Amino acid sequence: MINTHSNHSASAIINARKLGKAVPTSEGTLHILASVDLIIKRGESIAIVGESGSGKSTLLSLLAGLDTPSSGSVEIDGRDLNRLNEDGRALLRNELVGFVFQSFQLLPGLTALENVMLPLELSGVADAEQSARALLQRVGLAQRLQHTPRQLSGGEQQRVALARAFVSRPAILFADEPTGNLDRKTGAKVIDLLFELNQEQQTTLILVTHDMSLAARCQRTIRLEAGSIV
Amino acid sequence: MTRFRLSLKLLWRDARSGELTLLALALLIAVGGTTSISLFADRLQRTMNLQAAEFLAGDLVLAGPAPVDPQWLAKADEYALSGSQTVEFPSMLLENGEMQLASIKAVSETYPLRGRLKTRDAELQDEVVSSRGPAAGEAWIDKRLLPALKLKLNDTLTVGEKVLKVTRVISYEPDKRGDFYSFSPRVMMHLDDLAATGAVQPGSRVHYAYQFRGSENALADFKAWLQPNLNPSQKILDIHRDRPELGSALQRAERYLGLSSVVVTLIAGVAIAMATRRYSERHFNATALLRCLGCTQAEIVRLYAAQFLVLGLIVSAAGCALGWLAQYGLFRLLKNLLPETLANPGGLAIVYGLGTGLVILWGFALPPLLRLQAVPPLRVLRRELEPLPSSGWLVYGLAAAVVAALIWRYTDDPKLTGAIIGTGLLVLLIFGLAIHTILQLSRRLLPRLGLHWRFGLRGLLRDSRAGVGQILAFAITLTAMALSFSVRSHLLDDWRRQLPDRAPNHFAINILPSSLADFQTDLQREQIPDSRFYPVVRGRLVAINGEAVQGRVSKDSQGEAATQRELSLTWSDRFPEDNQITDGAAWQADRPGQVSVEKKLADNLGIRPGDQLAFTVGNAQLAATVVNLRSVQWDTMRPNFYMIFSPGTLAGFPATYMTSFYLTEAQKTVLPPLLKKYPAVTVLEVDQILQQFRTILAQLTAAINLILYFALAAGFSVLFGAVYSTLDQRIYEGALLRTLGARRRLLRIAHLIEFGVLGLAAGLLATLAAESILYALYTRVMQIDYQVHVYLWLTLPAAGVAGVTLAGYWGVRDVVRQAPLRVLRR
Predict the structure, then answer these.
(1) Closest chain A residue by Cα to residue B822
(2) Above 0.90 for ipTM, yes or no?
(3) In chain A, what residues touch B734 (CB-CB under 8 Å)?
(4) Average pLDDT of B57-78?
């Protein structure tokens, strides 16, 4: 039985303790997340499900260091996010983390190729263009390198976003409703691609979704209700 | 009606959420600025005209050698004009065995209509300001008459056959004519005593003047009625005609204020355009939803147009109120400089303000607003779908039309308007294209640049159309500010040059040749610098190329005035410093028989180099060949001449000498002994007139400086606002880059590079545009020499970089502070 905390920590890539997020509103403090404990192992794929407003996206943003918690802590790869400043967290994201968003979040002025090159350029990789081309080819967009997001369909845009997420070979991939803006068929293709790439790169996957069939493809599912894991 | 209510509801919601703040602020600046300037200019102009009217002792003067038809005065009554009358004539006075030629002025009860008289008692103390002339039976006299006629106050003085009691010494008379050659000491008396003097007989030299005062419209109507009834010897004087140096100073100040108004409008217009662009971009989603819910394109336009109409009316009204307050503030600031009686602010300026507000709003906001009707309903599903940008022709054409209309209204000068708009548009078009091309080319350079530069420049190149638009917008703002500054500097320099601090304030005339050398020595001993001594021979121009000169003059012209009296002719081997040859050959001082003619008179009489001129001097005839034409600065307070002959031409004719010099208040004590030593010499003190002129220029200068600061402040605040309106995209990208792991330092440097390059490009473009417009203005409109403005090349790019970088950096500082998710979620 592997149950000691230290063992967990050794293989854990994300360790969240007593994580809470509250925002002040005109009708008093609103607790979006309350005291969430969560350990995610290296290479694990985990789905976070729950109703709208249950705190899924907030949990994801705290785990990824995109937002700061009101209470509790998050460790990524043994580094406590609370002890890092915004730049430290940015550096950590650049090293370890990739993202796929529901609304794609591609830069409209850049071509597909340039969008994918971005994370590599930020970390100063020399052959950014080569790697980006290779990955765009891998997601089936070799013919669309010079197209801007406006000239791409939704599915194509999300495939560019996938390529951008995987191009820096991140240890962890955060995906926030990646098929939310796509039709079922296109969504399925994108998800297949996501799991394939995840498999290839042995990435830890944290997937926020309300699609139970999608959640079932992950190794573990946690359900949030009113800001707590149930 | 329900739609209108929906418009109001949406407007209210936008206002509460702060969506309209920038737009409303820009409009407020535009309307507040133009209203305050136009109120201020209007009020200042009328105040200045009031003060300038002092020089005439009325708003309008009808002058001539004979009394006018009483019907004319009845007509003035019909126009509800108040009137006064003066009669001036020379008379020889004889008292206590002394003789003195004096200039008598009989004034009516209501004189002066404008301005005040100042008088003193015998000890020349206790100056009293009064708005009436002497009572019947009394005389006020020039202080020079006291010693000259051995008079004391309360003595009697006989003018013609009328005995008057001398009650005051007159020290200031608002409408004293600066006719130096007929200058003799003043005796002022009541008009009712005039008949009793018996001095005015048929054939005597008498100057009748009728002053009128009233509303501008009534004056204009009366003047229009008078004009066709005048005979050739009668003249209408108003401030713009009769005091040209003052008139032109006023006119130029008015023009400057008008230009400032256009500048503020243009600056605010740019801000409105950019704010509306942001507004419409932020309403794409809402519009797409409305379209989805069944709104037609026309309904969308009506919906937003109604919102903007209401917004325009509310903000314009607030702007007018603000302008009204600002104008009061300006006058308070200038309180010490301005005359005590101020004209009331004109109500019409408020109406203009309101109208201007709506016109500016529509001119600059319509194109970006119209874009909303083209938002595809599919955008509810695909957020990246954007409507096509408005046509460049519509955007710039409409704005140019609005600005042209405003410039035209302020300058009332189609040529000037054409020069400014034409040059501005041409420069913006050419350089806009050039910038576009440079941006496109620099795209290729990107991969070879370092990370910071790559990210910084990419921000600018992301959407090169938007990039060019932003550069143009900032460039227009900077150009407007630069124009305002340059024209103001030019104006003030011009005034300073015209009236340097130590401009001569005394003229000495009638210096006999026999005492010339002594007089010069005396001045030198007292260390009084003179502006050269010129010989003066009185003569009349009678013929040009054998043709009698009367046939060549048009009525009321300068030429007519010059041919009806004797001119001061002089000779010299060189011209006064400020004279410049405009046409013809160089001055050859060693060849007698040559003459140089003042340019405007020459134009008026059709005199060309090579023409033969004939003069009469006394009973003798004189002929000379025109060698060249000269431009003359008449307002320098130095001796100047219509006709300058080559030395030797006037040999044998009786001449006296004249000069002008500057005396400080302390040096004035040298005058009495000097005048005693040279009894023939007359010294004219013009320091009163100079002081009055200087005060007016100081007031105008202060006003213009304030307006400039206002324009500059408006420019910079709008620049800040405009930068802010472009930040949405940058903030979003910054957040995304940080999600992908970009460090704050990278973003900061990239932003600095992006804003710096943007500001630099705008600054350079503004320099080119300002230089080109100034060139067109100077050479085409003002007809003056053009010089490159080195300071523009230094300051404008620097101001562009500093302004845009500061504003941009300030605006995006939050991006690097806030958690990126909050930005992405927005």
Answers:
(1) A67
(2) no
(3) none
(4) 87
